[in-house]
Amino acid sequence: MKKNRAAAFSAGIPWWLVLLVGLGSISVGTALADESYRVIFGAVARGFGVTMTVAVVSYAASLFLGLLLGLARASRLRPLREASTFYIELVRGLPMLVILYYIAFVGAPALAGVLNALLAPLIGMGAIPAFQSRNFSFATRAVLALTLGYAAFIAEIFRAGIESVDKGQVEAAHALGMSHSQTMLRVVLPQATRNVLPALANEFVAIIKDSALVSVLGVQDITQIGKVYAASTFKFFETYNVVAFFYLCLTVSLSMLVRALERRLNKASSR
Q1: Which of 72, 203, 213, 223 has its CA 20 to 30 A from that of 55?
Q2: What gap in Å lies between CA 116 and CA 121, rounded to an integer?
Q3: Cβ pair 133, 109 in contact under 8 A
Q4: Is the Cα torsion angle 73, 102, 240, 46 positive or negative in sign?
């Protein structure tokens, strides 16, 4: 009985996960035994909160904007479809780093100019000061760039989820007297969201990895602190080992949760 349980347990664990856990254990053991690794770990850990804040805020905002774009993409109104499709195709065709630079150095000054034009009477009376690009921190610009970039990808996920709902259910809802908006809110969106939950969770994993790009703006995330520390101490191997360890802990654990979510949804749908 014990052998059977052990065999079933070992068969259920993927080898790649065993290797990653082994590497992680070696890394932790090395960090505990080596003073330099402990110092690097403590230094890099200061950027963990910034990395998670940028990722979580960007993801939440991109979910909201992506849902609106997805609804517009699936709308029966052609102007909405065309406008949302234009935005989605434009943004998806640009590298995330280019979007980051554009928002940071072009979008922020433009936004300051727009706000100054809209609030000109208040600024003229001295009620509020004029806006300048430096009023927007680089962390804020990074969050805005990631939001605008990932909203395009999330919009396509929502669109696919909306189109996966059986059209017969939409027709039945209309036959019951529901309006188009009621049908979308009460019938289509709940099912569509359930269908795309694993894909949405994968986007969160991706946005955590892409949050490392904010280091090019000097935002003090894990990557930026690691880069500065390595450049000042010349301990590139040790520092980037620690940086990689932080990201792997985040992404692998989230990927395992996504797989568990997929299995649970598959079991629920097969019942």
Answers
A1: 72
A2: 9
A3: yes
A4: negative
Burial of 213 (0-12, 13-18, 19+ CB in 10 A): buried
User: Looking at domain 49-270, does it have CATH number 3.90.1150.10?
Assistant: no
Which residue would you say has higher pLDDT here, 5 or 205? 205
pTM as predicted? 0.84
Q: How far is CA 201 from CA 157, 228, 257, in A?
A: 11, 31, 9
Task: Report yes or no: 248 and 77 within 8 Å, Cβ to Cβ.
Answer: no
Which two tokens mark 114? 């727009």
Residue extents of the structural domains in the chain: 49-270
- Exposed e or buried b for every residue in 123-160, given b needs 16+ CB within 10 A? beeeeeeebebeebebbbbbbbbbbbbbbbbbbbbbbb
Closest CA to 63 of 143, 140, 145, 158: 158
pLDDT at 154: 95
**What is 196-210 written as a DSSP string?**
HHHHHHHHHHHHHHH
Residue 158 one-letter amino acid: F
Q: What is the pLDDT of residue 259?
A: 80
Largest CA distance in the chain: 83
- 188 touches 170 (CB < 8 A): yes
- Residue 31 in contact with residue 39, Cβ under 8 Å? no
Q: Are 37 and 238 in contact (CB under 8 A)?
A: yes
CB 94 within 8 A of CB 145: no
The tens digit of pLDDT for each residue in 199-227 reads 898 999 999 999 999 999 999 999 999 99
